[in-house]
Amino acid sequence: MLFKHLSRLLPATGIRLYATAEKSALATLRKKTGYTFANCKKALELHNNDLAKAEQWLKEQATAMGWSKATKLEGRNTAQGLIGVLVQRNVGAMVEVNCETDFVARNASFQRFVQVASAACVRHLEKVESDANLTKVGLNSEALKQIVLDDGKSLGDHLALMIGTVGENASLNRAICYKVPDSIQLTGYVHPAPSEEIPHDVPLLGKYGSLVAFKSEHSTVQEGANVAELSPAQVARKVCQHIVGMKPERIGVPGKDEPAADKDDETCLIHQEYLVDPAYTVGEVLEANRLQIVDFQRFACGEKSQSEEQNVRAATN
Predict the structure, then answer these.
(1) Could you give the 3-state DSSP secondary structure of residue 190?
(2) Reported pTM
(3) In this predicted model, what pLDDT tens digit does every residue of 140-177 receive, in sequence order?
(4) What's the 3-state SS for 38-100?
(5) Domain ranges, ordered by start, for the chain
(6) What is the spatial distance between Cα 107 and Cα 202, in angstroms, rounded to a whole number?
(7) Comparing C-alpha atoms, which of 82, 257, 276, 291 is closest to residue 249?
(8) 196 three-class SS
(9) Which fold has domain 18-56?
(10) Hey, what CATH topology would domain 80-219+231-300 get?
(11) Closest CA relative to residue 163, chosen from 228, 236, 98, 217
């Protein structure tokens, strides 16, 4: 009687153990890849619960489906998106990636792609031969798509994969990259600014961004009589913030460029009222802190930019 009871119990137990293992594999695959329950289940079924093979199959299918999806969605307006800014030592990059809706711009897959694109631009410029002063490289959509990542796939491939995941059109719009010698420093800023400290090797994401190359004559500078001492990088970053908010069109040359008659119409950086403290102009802040802006770039997500700003490689004194 006991033997009959056990014989009925063991097969059921085996089935339950198999089902548990199957659920565990499914949960692991979903967490690792981010793909849907149905797709992960199908991948495991096709490969006898082999996680490695199932993951590889999912990636191949996603790429194929992504390109198909990207082709179908191509041409649909992409006015939303994010700006990515990354500065690493003597190289900095600012990238604009667009999508159709703000909802997708908040999607984790889309944001990861913007970060990947930003880091890819930095690595791309590290391989570019430097000019004597500032090396400035603009990349348009097609140039961005051709950048190859460490996994052997292009940014265009990764874009298609992301499109297949989020389900709406997206585009690599433009990028500006700086590479500087030791005499020049770089800093960047995005708005809205992150609410918490972001590691230096992680790209910043926002709707607006700025990238600034600057020179400093000493290690500790003071922004004003009533402000605590700040480092050159801290002051330059505040100028980055000013550039995002006030949208200057050029740096300006003291003694050559005259202030605008109406301060609200001022487009020359050095003559604009300093956003952080309007009692000073940006030029006064730079002079007081012995800083020189070598070059700057500002991106606003969705804006129409001039082709000259996207396809330029120049050295600036």
Answers:
(1) strand
(2) 0.75
(3) 999 999 999 998 889 998 998 888 888 888 999 999 99
(4) HHHHHHHHHCCCCHHHHHHHHHHHHHHHHHHHHHHHCCCCCCEEEEEEEEECCEEEEEEEEEC
(5) 18-56, 80-219+231-300
(6) 17
(7) 257
(8) coil
(9) Helicase, Ruva Protein; domain 3 (1.10.8)
(10) Tetrahydropterin Synthase; Chain A (3.30.479)
(11) 98
